[in-house]
Design a protein that fits this description.
The chain has 12 helices and 65 strands. By secondary structure, it is α+β, with helices and mostly antiparallel strands. The strands form 16 sheets. It has a 5-stranded mixed beta sheet, with no helix packed on it. A 4-stranded antiparallel beta sheet has the order 1-28-27-26. A 4-stranded antiparallel beta sheet has the order 2-3-4-5, with no helix packed on it. Strand 51 and strand 52 form a beta hairpin. Helix 5 crosses helix 10 and helix 10 packs across helix 11.
Length: 958
């Protein structure tokens, strides 16, 4: 079913091409032609064969390499000595067959889009056989590939990889195919057909000596045979008859070098001496392109009809591309013959061209004739138009008239920009000049200058009437002028200026008429003029027509075709009710050559318009729709992953997500739209999901860069747009930029593990630190408490000390008191004893003086009694009590140290403790002082005291 649909579409395409070909061919001018130089291709340009892939890529076989062209880039592939190529045949991306000097093989695309070579056969030169076979033709018949050299045809079966051969009787001059049938000529033997890999001579061609260059199977199964030097022949019912075409004479003269089917009813014929022709199946010439008409050389080596039905030719000078299947033709001045075209007008078969060099005419019945200057007195022609059946010309010198091919001056004035008739008075004409506006009136059937409006000297290049009969003049840099005329249209009553101080106006101010309404436009938008309020109001409908277009500097409507130009583009909008479609890609090759606001889109004939450009004029058929089922979806040529150290070519064409190292996160994507005609712009739109989900503007760019993308998932989506505004299907390229090594899974696992370990260690550290801190706090608290305790103890100690001091004072007081008591008691005892001794002595003295003896006894008794009081034990006990209170441990200590002391010696020690003198001690003990001294001496001996040691000091220690 899909095959039937495909054939149906191909039939429709061919039918539309056939119908419209004559229409576009009748246009003056030539199709767009592009000649490629060696500097541009950067390889030698002697091309022997051309083939095209399913994706639109072109392949050129030339000595030294296979060249691939994507419509923008030329890529060269070589394979050493096997790169001297003569033939190429694209089968699929895995089998691009080539043959040449010495052998043949095929190229296949790798995952990154590059081509690799696989040799099927190659004969190396040896001394005995230095000559190598040259394989100059390749065809496919019934799935098998045929490689032709002069002596042999090799048959390659891709399914079994087997090679078989077909041998020539004398020599093969060619290898041809038509409608899946294969043919070859064995020189002077005949024309053969390949049937089941075997050769079979075609009856009626036996011993044919003509050099056959093409064989085509016709609808009635007859064969159309093109020969090199003998024109075209027909083989029908085994009878070979020469075609009675007049073109045969031309081809016999110019020699046919190559021929290809162009459409069902047309052929492209390349010649040795006069370029190439497109002829019908009746032998009628539809087009002829040679060096004079655009291509680089008249000597054609190879012709090729691409998927858009445009022609590629290889010549002795290189490669030329001719956009035959286009709705535009070009009349270019490449030699300075007529210059820049400002305006044009077609009258009958005469095309008038107003240029910067003057006024030229060209008869379109002779499409290859040159424009001819008709008046040398004119220089710059600015406008040509028909008014009341007369052709008026506005030029640098003023206003003129062309009548019966004669040139007549109407008025001399500096620069006739434009002329407009009064909408009410048909005999009044207004002409805008370099410096003002003039009025002309038709008198005696001739336009006569009446006057130039006074007080208005502005350049009047843009002039238009509004619905109220007012004249408007636009000056792009200043603004708008509204001119109010007198009722008879001959006087200027007043004018008003609307400049940049108006909030709706800024420089680059223009106007146009859309559906009869005057529309003002400038960078601020589209506006209508409101005569009641004398203001400009927003115009919604024109804004919708030109939606998405900016900086428009010229608009011209012709029914449903709205021509426009901007500083960078040129095109038109087609209106279908309330639907609008922009067409501008077809004018891509003149975007940099159009005249901006000097553009004039002049209707030449029916839907054919003329657009003046810097080096000529373009003729465009706005009604001719080139229908095609060709998908112009962009293809990815390469994906380069760039880092500071290296560049990686990523695989393309697969559905798998591309893994990109983080270090190569500068992404450069090269795109191609090889199926789009070469003369069209290559408009693409893209978005990178994961970075920005919004679509970009339409751009004429075939390389997209994304520098420094961060890690993560992305999807690049792209689409293209055809000349009729139809967008292609979206292609998607998913890719993933890996995280840097320090952020990959292993690194993250390491980081997690490290974090856990660090966390545990840190937790332990914190615990230890906390414990240490707690211990420190406890220690500090302990120390604080100890200090508080110490302080408390100190306070307490101080208090105790004070208490002890008080106690000590009290004790000392008590001791002092006791010592005082002891001392007092001892002193009293001493005084008492002294008194008693004195008393005894006195009594004894009395006794000695008494003569009465009876008193002696009494005196003795008294003395005895007194002596008893001198040694009274009670006194000692009292003394001992008081002494123990003051020196509680004395007796214990001294007894422990010296247990052998007698009671009197202890008494003596006690008295010595009190630091009493020997006399006082003797009194207390009621002994003689000498006894005390002796006792002291005995004590020293018992104490084993040295002579130097003081007895009192020693006793004070106890």
């Amino acid at each position: 079913m899909r095959i039937l649909i495909r054939h149906f579409f191909l039939f429709i395409i061919s039918f539309s091409i056939t119908i419209t070909f004559s229409q576009i061919s009748n246009l003056p001018g030539l199709p767009y032609t592009k000649n490629f130089s060696k500097e541009e291709v950067k390889v030698g340009l002697k091309i022997f064969d051309i083939s095209q892939g399913a994706d639109g890529l072109l392949y050129f076989a030339q000595p030294g390499s296979l060249i691939e062209y994507d419509g923008f880039r030329w890529t060269k592939y070589t394979e050493g000595v096997q790169s001297d190529l003569r033939a190429v045949l694209y089968k699929d991306d895995k089998h691009i067959y080539t043959g040449g000097h010495g052998g043949f093989g095929y190229w296949y695309k790798t995952t990154n889009g590059k081509l690799k070579y696989k040799s099927l056969f190659f004969k190396k030169p040896i001394k005995e056989a230095p000559l190598l076979p040259v394989f100059s033709n390749i065809i496919e018949v019934q799935g098998k590939i045929y490689f032709q050299s002069f002596q042999l045809i090799y048959v390659f079966d891709p399914l079994t990889n087997q090679l078989n051969t077909i041998h020539a009787d004398k020599g093969f001059s060619n290898l041809l195919s038509s409608k899946k049938r294969g043919f070859f000529q064995d020189v002077s033997v005949g024309l053969f057909e390949i049937i089941n890999s075997e050769k079979k001579i075609i009856k009626g061609t036996e011993k044919i000596s003509m050099d056959i260059v093409g064989v085509f199977v016709e609808k009635d199964n007859s064969l159309l045979i093109a020969t090199k030097n003998n024109g075209f022949w027909c083989l029908k019912n085994n009878v070979l008859i020469k075609k009675d075409w007049t073109v045969n004479t031309r081809f016999e003269k110019f020699i046919i070098t190559d021929i290809e089917k162009y459409s069902d009813n047309q052929y492209v014929v390349g010649t040795l001496r006069n370029g190439f022709y497109i002829i019908s199946n009746d032998g009628e010439i539809g087009n002829h392109i040679n060096k004079k008409r655009g291509i680089s050389n008249n000597s054609i080596l190879k012709v090729f009809n691409d998927i858009n039905n445009n022609i590629w030719v290889s010549t002795e000078s290189g490669i030329s591309y001719v956009e035959i299947n286009s709705n535009s033709k070009y009349l270019l001045d490449n030699n300075g013959r007529f210059g820049t075209v400002f305006t044009s007008y077609l009258k009958d078969s005469i095309l008038y061209l107003g240029t910067n060099q003057g006024l030229f005419i060209k008869n379109i019945n002779y499409p290859f004739s040159e424009p001819r200057l008709i008046d040398e007195s004119l220089d710059r022609v600015l406008e040509i138009d028909e008014v009341d059946g007369e052709i008026l010309v506005g030029s640098h010198k003023g206003l003129s008239l062309i009548k019966n091919n004669f040139f007549k001056t109407i008025h001399l004035e500096g620069g006739g920009w434009i002329f407009k008739k009064h909408p009410k008075f048909k005999d009044i004409l207004y002409v805008g000049f370099y410096s003002g506006l003039a009025v002309f009136k038709k008198i005696n059937n001739e336009w006569t200058f009446i006057k130039k409006f006074e007080n208005f000297g502005e350049s009047s290049r843009f002039l238009e009437f509004d619905q109220y009969g007012q004249i408007w003049i636009a000056h792009p840099q200043k603004g708008y002028y509204r001119l109010l005329l007198s009722p008879d249209g001959l006087e200027l009553k007043e004018f008003e200026f609307y400049g940049v101080d108006n909030q709706t106006i800024e420089p680059y101010a223009y106007f146009t008429k859309i559906d009869g309404n005057l529309v003002f436009f400038n960078p601020k938008g589209f506006f209508f003029y409101d005569a009641i309020d004398n203001v400009f109001t927003k115009a919604k409908y024109p804004s919708e027509i030109f939606k998405g277009l900016h900086n428009i500097n010229h608009i011209s409507q012709n029914e449903n075709v709205f021509w426009y130009s901007t500083p960078n583009t040129l095109g038109y909008v087609l209106r279908d009710q309330n639907h609008f479609k922009v067409n501008e890609t077809v004018f891509y090759n003149i975007w940099d050559k159009h005249l901006n606001d000097f553009n004039k889109f002049k209707k030449i004939d029916k839907n054919i318009f003329g657009i003046g450009i810097e080096n000529g004029i373009v003729f465009h058929n706005s009604d001719r729709l080139i229908t095609s089922e060709i998908n112009t979806t962009p293809i990815v040529k390469s994906i380069e992953l760039i880092s500071s150290k290296d560049t990686i070519r990523a695989p393309i064409g697969g559905k798998e997500e591309i893994k990109i190292p983080y270090s190569n996160n500068f992404i450069k994507i090269k795109i191609a739209i090889p199926k789009a005609p070469l003369g069209n712009s290559k408009l693409i739109q893209y978005r990178l999901k994961g970075l920005n989900n919004n679509w970009s503007n339409w751009i004429n760019k075939l390389e997209i860069n994304f520098p420094g993308l961060s890690s993560g998932d992305y999807i690049l989506e792209m689409k293209s747009k055809t000349e009729d505004g139809i967008t292609s299907e979206i292609i998607s390229i998913p890719f993933y930029i890996q995280y840097p090594w320090y952020l990959n899974n292993w690194a993250i696992a390491f980081y997690v593990l490290t974090f856990i370990v660090v966390f545990i260690v840190y937790r332990a550290y914190l615990n230890m630190k906390n414990i240490k801190k707690v211990n420190q706090l406890i220690e500090i608290e302990t120390q604080k408490r100890e200090r508080q305790k110490e302080k408390f103890d100190l306070v307490k100690l101080e208090a105790d000390k004070k208490l002890l001091l008080l106690k000590e004072e009290n004790l000392n007081f008590e001791i002092k008191k006791k010592n005082a008591a002891l001392a007092s008691s001892t002193l009293n005892n001493i005084k008492k004893n002294e008194l008693l001794m004195d008393l005894i002595n006195d009594i004894k003295s009395i006794d000695s003086e008494l003569l009465n003896s009876s008193l002696h006894y009494l005196i003795k008794k008294v003395i005895k009694k007194i002596n008893s009081h001198l040694v009274d034990k009670e006194d000692w006990l009292t003394f001992q009590l008081h002494f123990s209170n003051s020196h509680s441990q004395f007796f214990q200590n001294i007894n422990e140290k010296h247990p052998d002391l007698s009671p009197n010696e202890i008494k003596l020690c006690a008295y010595l403790k009190l630091n009493l003198s020997s006399k006082e001690i003797a009194s207390l003990m009621n002994v003689a002082i000498t006894s005390i001294e002796q006792s002291r001496y005995r004590l020293r001996k018992k104490f084993n005291l040295d002579k130097e040691e003081n007895l009192l000091h020693y006793i004070q220690k106890f």
